[in-house]
Amino acid sequence: MTIPKTDRLVPPALSVLRIVSAYLLILHGSAKLFGFPHVAFFDNLQLVSLLGAAGVLEFFGGILLLIGLFTRPVAFVLSGLAAFAYFIGHASKGFVLAPSLNQGEAAVLFSFVLLFIAAAGAGPWSIDAWRRRAPVAGASAAAA
Question: Keywords in UniProt for this one (predicted)?
Fold first, then answer.
């Protein structure tokens, strides 16, 4: 049984989840691409490498997610990126089914949160939602 009062909180909560996830992805990407915030592991990172490509996807995909533009396909691609990061960068460091043992919890969580966003959409606070609400130019003239 659902409580009607909480039903109205779900769409804004989806937008908040998308915005916070996007912010974190932008930070991951900017650490790789621009060195801010500084993460010593990413010093001298080559742009043409797996980590460099991940940084580009995280930064620019994060910006698209933040504003809620092309949310579903971007979130789907980024979900795959996070899964790829887990299996390539973390699973080989320990038991694959125990992310807490191989420092892969964030990658797993990102993968599933982004997969949920890809399925659920951007939420009401997004350019995607605004584009769905905006009337098409000339539609009223064609209907007349």
Answer: Cell membrane, Membrane, Transmembrane, Transmembrane helix
